[in-house]
């Protein structure tokens, strides 16, 4: 069947955060990418049209990302760079931010997130250790957020959170002076989190969807049928669904053809959206 839909490239459109900043609607995710793979993938992504890179201290690839940015030659002000403070630096997020900036080789971030709602006690003998650390139960998340609010604008333009539930966000907003710009969570047709998405929209918080392809588990008869009908890949269908829900999607791939393909999204019909929405209820 021939498609009546037209592919629309989403490399230029953006979303407006509650701060007024405009963030590219599709970002390139860097989870689980290490060494030369990370560098080559980021360079490919930038050359393919991505202008939004989603990094994190815990991914341990800032240096490779920074090298790829310099090799790609795109001016810093044309890129949106996000990173995340790990729980070892919740007592001093500015220290964590400074480490990130040094590793990336940039002067500022567009967005800095608290990676988890959990703080960890640092190992004084190995301050760079990220895993296997005890939880700091005395650290209050509201106090951590208050420290984030005081970060200098010269170093970071926007601040947000990651992996927070409706209840956690509601508690945070009771004392927050600055509403988080985003809440980055896992979100895809198998885990649509509609209640959380609706709550964030009501508070002016943009939801960023990591693992929008369900870590490779996005293909099923419904998605495949829609993809065949429209002449696109199952991944394009699922990513388009996410974008049309109003989420900031962060697909990840190290395959050049898929990196490029993930920017080519399509307008789905209301029926397509309903059929995909129904997957989680099954």
From TrEMBL:
Provide the top EC class. Answer: oxidoreductase
Query: What positions constitute the catalytic site?
Result: 59 (proton donor)
Task: Note the CDD domains from the entry.
Answer: AKR_AKR1-5-like (cd19071)
Record keywords: Oxidoreductase
Q: Give the domain of life.
A: Eukaryota
SUPFAM superfamilies given in the database record: NAD(P)-linked oxidoreductase
- Which PROSITE patterns has this protein been placed in? ALDOKETO_REDUCTASE_3 (PS00063)
Where on this chain does substrate bind? 115
Task: State the EC number(s).
Answer: 1.1.1.21
Residues in NADP-dependent oxidoreductase domain copies? 27-280
An MF annotation (GO) of this entry: oxidoreductase activity, acting on the CH-OH group of donors, NAD or NADP as acceptor
Name the site position(s) for Lowers pKa of active site Tyr: 84
Show the InterPro entries listed in the entry.
AKR, Aldo/ket_reductase_CS, NAD(P)_OxRdtase_dom_sf, NADP_OxRdtase_dom
Name of this protein: Aldose reductase
| Lineage of origin | Eukaryota, Fungi, Dikarya, Ascomycota, Saccharomycotina
